[in-house]
Amino acid sequence: MKREIIITNDGSTTIHIPDWNENYHSTHGAIQEAKHVFIKNGLDLFHNQNSISILEIGFGTGLNAFITFLETLNKEEVNYVGVEAYPVAFDEVKQMNYVTELQANQYQEIFDKMHTCDWESKQIIAENFLLTKRKQFFQDIEDKSKYNLIYFDAFGFPLQPELWSETIFKKMYDALLPNGVLVTYACRSVIKNAMLSVGFSIEKLPGAPGKREMLRATKNV
After folding, report:
1. What's the sign of the alpha-carbon dihedral 36, 41, 42, 43?
2. Fewer Cβ in 10 A, N or C end of the chain?
3. Contacts of 93 (CB under 8 A, 6+ apart)
4. Contact (Cβ atoms closer than 8 angstroms) between residue 56 and residue 151
5. DSSP 3-state assignment of 72?
6. Percent of the chain scored above 90 by pLDDT?
7. What is the pTM of this model?
8. Average pLDDT over residues 141-156
C-alpha cells in the first residue's frame, strides 16, 4: 500500500495513505495535536505523581511517546506501553522531523532508540523512561488494572469503526487503574455512547486546532 510523507500545517510531518485518504496525524498539525490531546488533556493531570503507567493505542511514528519523554524529563518515572499491529518502517521514521521541530536535537538518539529497540520486552530508553512495544491487534489486549492513562490514537472511525466499539472500550476500561483516564482526538456521538456503555464518565473538551471537540473518559472507581 502506497504511503507518503507529508508536512502538516504546523510544519511537522506525518504519514499519508492515499488509498485510504487517511493520515497518521491531523493535517492541521501533528505536533500541536499530540500536545493538545495527549499531553495537555492527559499527561498533565498526573504531574503530581512520582510515576505513571501509560498505554498507547497506535504507537505509529512514535510522536506521542517522544513528546511524553520530553515532558517527563527529570519528573515522573514512566512505564510506557505502545501497541501497534503494523509497525512503521525505520526508513519512514527517519523522514519524520519531530526531533528538529521540537528543538530536541540532543535527544535524537532517544527517538531513534524508541524505534530500533526490541519489541515484546521492556526496554530502558532513559533513566526514568521504560518502553515496551507490543506488536498486537487492539482486540487482543487483555491487560487488567495496569495503567493510569491511555492515549487512544487509532485510525479514524470512518475507516475502522470496529476499533471504536464497546468491545474495545471495555478492554480499555479494564486496562485502566481506578480513576484512570483515556484521551482521544475523536468526539463522535457513537464513540461517546460506546464509552458510556462500558462505565466511563465522559468530558467533551475543546479539540486540537482545526477540530471542534475531543473526548476524555475517566474510570471512576
Report:
1. positive
2. N
3. 61, 62, 112, 115
4. yes
5. coil
6. 89
7. 0.96
8. 96
Contact 214, 37 (CB under 8 A): yes
CB burial class (10 A; 0-12, 13-18, 19+) of residue 26? buried
Q: Is the pLDDT of residue 61 over 90?
A: yes
Report how far residue 135's alpha carbon sits from residue 1's, in angstroms, rounded to the nearest whole number: 19
Nearest residue to 186 via CA among 177, 195, 174: 195
> Whole-angstrom Cα distance, residue 3 to residue 17?
5
Q: Which residues does residue 204 pair with via DSSP β-bridges, in sequence order?
A: 215
Q: Quick one: cell of 152?
A: 487512544
Give CATH for domain 29-218. 3.40.50.150
The domains of the chain are located at: 29-218
Contacts of 69 (CB under 8 A, 6+ apart): 78, 107, 110, 114, 125, 126, 129
> By three-state DSSP, how is residue 121 classified?
coil
Amino acid (one-letter) located at 87: P
Task: Give the pLDDT mean for 33-57.
Answer: 96
